[in-house]
Amino acid sequence: MAKCIKCGKHGLFFKVNHKGICTDCEASEKREIEEARKRYLQEKKRKAEDDWNKLCSLPKCNIIRSSNKIKVQQTSFLKDLNFSNITAKSSLEKLGKFVVVDIETTGLSAVHDDVVEIAAIKFENFIPVEIFETYIFPTKGIKEEAAKVNKITEDMVDGAPLLYEVIPSLQEFIFGYNLVAHNFEFDFKFLCRGGLDIVSDKRKYFDTMQIAQKMLKKPKYKYDKEWEEYVIDYNSDYDVEDHKLDTLCSYYGIARNNEHRALSDCYDTARLFKKLAEDKIL
Length: 282
What we know:
β8 (221-224) and β9 form a beta hairpin. Strands 5-4-3-6-7 form a five-stranded mixed beta sheet, sandwiched between helices. Strands 1-2 form a two-stranded antiparallel sheet. By secondary structure, it is an alpha/beta fold. The N and C termini lie far apart (53 Å). It has helices spanning 23-56, 92-95, 144-150, 154-157, 163-174, 184-193, 208-215, 245-251, 262-281, and strands at residues 2-3, 10-11, 98-105, 115-124, 127-135, 178-181, 205-207, 221-224, 229-232. The longest helix is centred in the first third of the chain and has 34 residues, at 23-56. The protein contains nine helices and nine strands. α7 packs parallel to α9.
């Protein structure tokens, strides 16, 4: 005679599952799990919103518009930049002082496209202490496909400074700090072409995309005869499908706010940097 180990009900035709639980208790257990999951997600969302509000309340850098136009700079040196890695012997304390930088643009070409937003956050011991944030006026306008991604419209950048006008303030903001970015070369190709100097001062450079590529494996691909293309082999041993910021934040459980905007991507890159460092060192 079957008997539920949870509620104690029993009977000749009474049914229990493989765990010895009846249908009613199984349904109740599923509801409890779902409710607990919802509470967890709500708490996670609430904390992410609280963190975001705290970030937005931090002191903001006083950006002074410079009238000295800077010549377009060569950026080929970025390909040979010596990026620092994180090892088991790295000092978490020393890694915690940095400036993380992110930009939004009208396209992928530093020659033909424009910056429309710059954000940078200064960190001490992995704690954000000051923000640099500004729209940038794009001289070539905003492409529709770019606006769909970052939601930045021409009305939003109307009256904003040109890139060269804010470079001196950004230069001062990053002075004395290591630099962190996700896909470092992309962001700094635009900024250095606009006149930012990142090599004259002694500092380290960290690319969270490169660090993640060394730490987290991508899946192998196999040829699918039916579709006549290469597809992910989900049976292969891998950590993440790609090393995009969204994917890596999801992997480490970093709840995102307002993604694909410069300040938000800055903050999430910094949190990813900390997760990668802790993963490697601790």
